[in-house]
Design a protein that fits this description.
The complex is a heterodimer of chains A (476) and B (156).
Chain A: H1 29-39, H2 47-53, H3 55-60, H4 67-73, E1 92-97, E2 109-115, E3 118-125, H5 133-137, H6 142-149, H7 157-172, H8 178-206, H9 210-231, E4 240-241, E5 244-245, H10 253-275, H11 279-285, H12 293-299, H13 304-308, H14 315-318, H15 339-363, H16 381-386, H17 388-399, E6 407-415, E7 418-426, E8 434-438, H18 440-446, H19 448-452, H20 457-467, H21 471-475
Antiparallel strand pairs in A: 1-2, 2-3, 4-5, 6-7, 7-8
Chain B: H1 10-25, E1 29-30, H2 36-45, E2 68-72, H3 80-89, E3 95-99, H4 100-105, E4 126-128, H5 135-151
Parallel strand pairs in B: 1-2, 2-3, 3-4
Helix pairs in contact in B: 1-5, 2-5
The chains are: A mainly alpha (476), B alpha/beta (156).
């Protein structure tokens, strides 16, 4: 560890975290001890690590200390609500769950106020996976940008790429060939199946059905094998790009899809056979983690959580994108808004996605897999051998990138977690001036206190899993 | 007194081999999943790739029971102290695998938010390249680490 971390300013010269100024001058013995306790505990190298790690030291911080610096260090917990509840305060205690906990699905941290086994208050604390992707996007050209956004919600990389590409294409105003559109829908719907399969696996494991973990992964591998054949990668594909997709489907993809449809459908049937009549699973999911439709609207919750509560809102129906309106599919809606309904909604969504995939299999149009607009698309490979201009064109496109007209665009797609939106502001250059992402998991985490209050600690795990938060999506 | 180089005797070398063999055959990883790589780490534990072939399927939630920390994913500035604390809580002997580009070097995110390489915080024994590394890559990294331990290259 050579230097202290530098936060938001990015300025390597002036650290934003500095030891607090002594309150009463250095001669004051009390304040010197305070500084010693907080800042000089441990070796010089480990100073910032310890200061930020030691929760106990946080609690003991003198109030005179700069609150902003505390918050910037990332361990400040706003404890203002403790004791407000009115009930027996002696019985309440604070339990810290995460950020390193196997059931938090990543690095979510939950600050729980519990009374015995009952949760009275929940406070999600996020930011442990903040990667600065929206800022990084400003330094990448539009072509490179898909590489960046695909890593946000790492369980649905295709949806990230699709939202980003559609937003860029809105500004570019290019026509996307029907084959490219169909390939995009094919990949995103398969991605939805893969994501939900992983969700079934982890939900099952979190509430004790460990066999689901093995079965869910097995079927997910089937989907990933197809992804790998098409894109070359199992995850983080960078396949859907502004202007089309990176490459055409391989020869014999129809056979692969037919095989996949059979295997995954059988897998979903088997998962349902295991879970749907399992009394333990039903007891642990029915009536647990309820959220009402009104609360969903208030908190901006979308996707399977909102549909499980009875809101028949699906962006694929409401604001269709990439030609999805031409395929037949239903939007499953639950009634009770509990964990069980979310499970049933997701299982049905997988079936509907497979239905869309089957239709695409039968109606895949011929044509090009990317637009023929030469401002966006590089020239065909054989032209580069024949023409110097084509070579220069290719070089310029991949070094400098294409320019996008000034303006702003917003595009939402229905990701496995709900309404995923990308907002882009262009000032006419080859890089976005600003990129913002509307993350569905963020809203889900925001609504967790609603779902979890007055539950048992064990039910919290089931509810947390049913919200299916991806922390890469929350924090970006 | 002249300094005499330490030459390990027959007994100690034989015992070392036995100890190293025991260490490599029951290496329990701490589940330190952070981002995309964590999904591939879970895939490695799944039925298809089956890490239990190497006696390692016991992903421990408690660092006290773990020997190996697989840092799977991007480490943010906010997560760095947590990572160090988990490492400190693990019992010796312990090893660290840095999985993926982000954990090893910061990857494509050279910005204000990420630690540019987890080796700034904890000592790393094995780097696994990839973004994310597939299960085969991770298994190769784990097996290479086991080989190193068996050969006595890494001493604890």
């Amino acid at each position: 560890m050579s230097d202290t971390p530098h936060l938001a300013t990015g300025d390597r010269e002036t650290p934003t975290i500095e030891p607090p100024e002594p309150v009463g001058g250095l001669d004051d013995a009390t304040s010197r001890r305070e500084i010693h306790d907080v800042w000089v505990a441990g070796t010089e190298e480990q100073e910032w690590v310890r200061a930020a790690t030691d929760e106990g030291a946080q609690e003991m911080l003198p109030e005179a200390q700069d609150a902003a610096a505390t918050i910037q260090r990332g361990t400040a917990v706003d404890d203002d609500y403790i004791g407000e509840g009115g009930a027996d305060e002696d019985q309440r205690q604070i339990l810290n769950m995460g950020p390193q906990h196997p059931s938090t699905h990543g690095v979510l941290r939950l600050h729980l106020e519990i009374e015995g086994e009952t949760i009275r208050r929940v406070k999600p604390i996020i930011g442990y996976l903040h990667t600065g992707m929206e800022k990084t996007a400003e330094t990448l050209s539009y072509m490179q940008g898909a590489t960046n956004v695909t890593r946000m919600d790492y369980l649905s990389p295709f949806h990230n790429e699709l939202a980003y590409s559609l937003a860029v294409e809105q500004l570019l105003d290019v026509e996307i060939p029907t084959r490219a559109q169909a390939i995009r829908i094919l990949m995103t719907e398969l991605n939805r199946v893969a994501s939900h399969l992983l969700w079934v696996a982890t939900q099952g494991m979190d509430i004790g059905a460990v066999s689901m973990m093995l079965f869910g992964w097995q079927d997910r591998e089937t989907c990933l094998e197809f992804f790998e054949k098409v894109t070359g990668l199992r995850m983080n594909h960078n396949y859907i790009r502004p202007g089309g997709v990176a490459a055409d489907l391989h020869d014999g993809w129809e056979d692969d899809i037919e095989d996949l449809l059979v295997r995954v459908s059988a897998g979903i049937d088997r998962d349902e056979a295991i879970l749907n009549k399992n009394p333990i699973f039903l007891d642990r999911t029915r009536g647990i983690g309820v959220i009402t439709p009104e609360e969903c609207r208030q908190y901006g919750v979308s996707g399977p959580i909102a549909r499980g509560s009875g809101i028949a809102h699906d962006l694929r129906k409401v604001f269709p994108y990439s030609g999805i309106e031409q395929y037949d599919f239903d939007v499953p809606v639950g009634k009770h808004g509990d964990v069980l309904d979310r499970y049933l909604v997701r299982i049905e969504e997988m079936r509907q996605s497979l239905r869309i995939v089957e239709q695409i299999l039968n109606t895949m149009p011929a044509g090009d897999f990317r637009t023929d607009d030469r401002k966006v698309t590089p020239p065909p490979r054989q032209r580069i051998d024949e023409s110097m201009e084509a070579l220069i064109h290719h070089f310029k496109l991949f070094t400098e990138g294409f320019r996008v007209p000034a303006g702003e665009a917003y595009q939402g797609v229905e990701s496995p977690r709900g309404h995923l939106g990308v907002y882009i502001v262009s000032q006419g250059g080859a890089r976005p001036w600003r990129l913002h992402v509307r993350a569905p998991s963020f809203a889900a985490v925001q609504a967790m206190p609603v779902m979890m209050t007055d539950l048992l600690v064990a039910d919290l795990v089931a509810t947390l899993a049913s919200a299916d938060p991806v922390l890469g999506d929350v924090d970006r | 007194m002249a300094h005499q180089a330490h030459v390990p005797g027959f007994l100690m070398t034989t015992m070392d081999k036995g100890v190293n063999w025991a260490r490599t055959r029951s290496m329990w990883p701490a589940s330190f999943g952070l981002a995309c790589c964590a999904i591939e780490m879970m895939a490695t534990g799944g039925s298809h790739n089956d890490i239990s072939r190497f006696g390692m399927e016991v992903f421990r939630a408690s660092p006290r029971q773990a020997d190996l920390m697989i840092v799977a994913g991007r480490v943010s500035q906010k997560m760095a102290p947590v990572l160090r604390q988990v490492y400190d809580q693990m019992a010796e002997p312990k090893w660290v695998i840095s999985m993926g580009a982000c954990a090893s070097t910061g990857g494509m995110f050279n910005n204000y938010a990420l630690v540019q390489g987890v080796d700034q915080i904890v000592p790393v024994d094995m780097y696994v390249p990839g973004c994310p590394p597939g299960p085969q890559s991770l298994l190769h990294g784990i097996l290479s680490l086991q080989e190193e331990i068996m050969a006595g290259t890494i001493r604890r």
